[in-house]
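User: quick one, fold this
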Amino acid sequence: MFNKLMKFKYNFSPILHNRIILYFFFAIALIDLVYFLNIGDMYSFSVIILVGILTSFFVKNMIVILFVAIIVTHLLKHGRASFSEGMEGMDDDSVETDEKKPTASSNKKKSPASDKKSIGSLKDFSKNIDQIISKEEDPEQNELIEKLPEIKETRDKIVNHVKDMQPLLEKFQGYIDKFNDYNASGK
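Assistant:
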């Protein structure tokens, strides 16, 4: 059986010089590049570029270059994810874990109730800015501010900037109210 496989010869020249296959792999590579940039996966983006460049030094056929770059990138991407998957019990210091990528389910729009809640909190914030600033309930915070005058200066600068932003917040609140009225009338 092994002898039969060794005698088997196939001419790959028509496949390696086919324009349709070249355009197909080019489209896949381009889609992968855009996808990696879109999700912020700079590791895979750089791997596909570097593997493509390295492969081009050894092979002059663009179909082979694109094929190798795509396959190596996906093997590294999915191999890295499956490697770190079984290490739940390991210490965080000993293993670098993948950052949590935003998914489609985490990018869902907030419900109108949560939007109204945030709008209400914005109104409360802009109306009660002076009360929020003058609160001094935390004795540890007051003690720390007394020990470090730079913190007090920084806090005062932030407070002044927030007070300066109050008219803008009120305008923004008006736009939000108009937008919500528009959405409610459209439904």
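User: anything notable?
Assistant: Residues 93-115 have pLDDT under 50 and may be disordered.
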